[in-house]
Amino acid sequence: MSNNIKLKRGLNIPIAGEAAQKIKKAVVPGVVAIKPTDFRGLLPRLLVKEGDKVLAGSPVLADKKSPDIVFTSPVSGTVETIVRGEKRKLLEVRVKADKTQEYVDFGVKKVKGMDADQVKKALLESGLWPALIQRPYGVLANPDIRPKAIFVSAFNTAPLAADLEYALRDEFNNIQTGIDALAKLTDGGIHISFNSENYSGTPFHKLENVIQHTFTGKHPAGNVGIQIHHISPIRKGDTVWTVSLLMLAAIGKLLNTGKYDMTRRVAVTGPKAIDPSYVTALPGMAMSDINEFYDNSAKDIRFISGDVLTGANVGEDGFLGFYDNQVTLIKEGKEYEMLGWAKPFRSNLFSASRTYFSWLTPNKKYDMDTNLHGGVRAFLMNDVYGKVLPMDIYPVYLTKACIAEDIDKMEKYGIYEVLEEDLALCEYVCPSKIDIQSIISDGISLMMKEMA
Predict the structure, then answer these.
(1) Considering the entire predicted model, what is its pTM?
(2) How confident is the model at residue 236 (pLDDT cuts 50, 70, 90)?
(3) Strands 90-97 and 31-34, how do they pair?
(4) Rounded to an integer, what distance in angstroms lies between the CA atom of residue 60 and that of residue 263?
């Protein structure tokens, strides 16, 4: 066991609706969606038109900036609809799935005999290259770059996150294959981080060809960005890649079977979920495919692909994101509460700042909704953010630098080290109700534009 890194700051949000470790159903896809919006910085180029037949693994989109990076269909079927938004922005390519699935045969690979170029070629041709995320900025990895290192988080501390040991219990060999392949793409090794509380209990601690680290602490201890900050901080000019265990399993399946198989266990969670549990599904799954998990007759449910802090509000007609293995169903908080701030005895509300007496019942779970309990107000200097962000940066100064579009100060205060997910808790506890993740996103977009 490696040295343990203890994080003193953070916050676990006690929201109700954790998924029981059981498979409730295997989703048989009707229509799946490939969404360019899942990928930061992507300029998509369509490779298909409505009515085209595709196999699982057939290219559907390509990146205009890097034409070798393609995005492939997770199912075989017919391109049903191409959805565009304002100014003809490409939003979705919807594929109607066949009853019997057919796959492109990419050929079984022997990883030990492959070099870096062969690994890159296999991932690029199959559509699995987007599994690799490049930092700074969280963009698609550049195939022409050899990163300083590759980082993996083997645990997730986000609210109601899928249990990775359960979700990936049959994928150990595939994950090992994925690690062996990606290790050829960097000289700095594969760094994988574990939860110290369950290090000996997880089968993933037996993975080979990796550099192991353990972390102790509350959320966001499971965020790979937090882990990178404490293992090898990103400085100006550095490039690192990250990949999830979920994507490592998909890469391993590709190399071991020759198939683009994105099947995954998805946790359906949240206070509005009926019998929260797991389903077997594909990225691009329609929310309507899990309608037995909810009753939205009152039209009061928010459908989130991902967790409540960082997931996307996709709506009842939306689809599961490419990187997600969690759906959260939570009530839309539309009720107005008069003088709510003056009622400290509300036992059914959680407070991170001990405004209410929820701290007296630390094991209680709450039926939270989306109500902000207030509106946007003056952005005041305080230490609230620092209590939940286990990074040696100044989040208030960084956020204000992003608002001011001051690139020098953004660099000074840590823009290279963060993505929106790393400051999500800051937004949750913000007394001014500032949309911090959106501000950081705009700051990253500015950096990408000005520093290109």
Answers:
(1) 0.95
(2) very high
(3) antiparallel
(4) 18
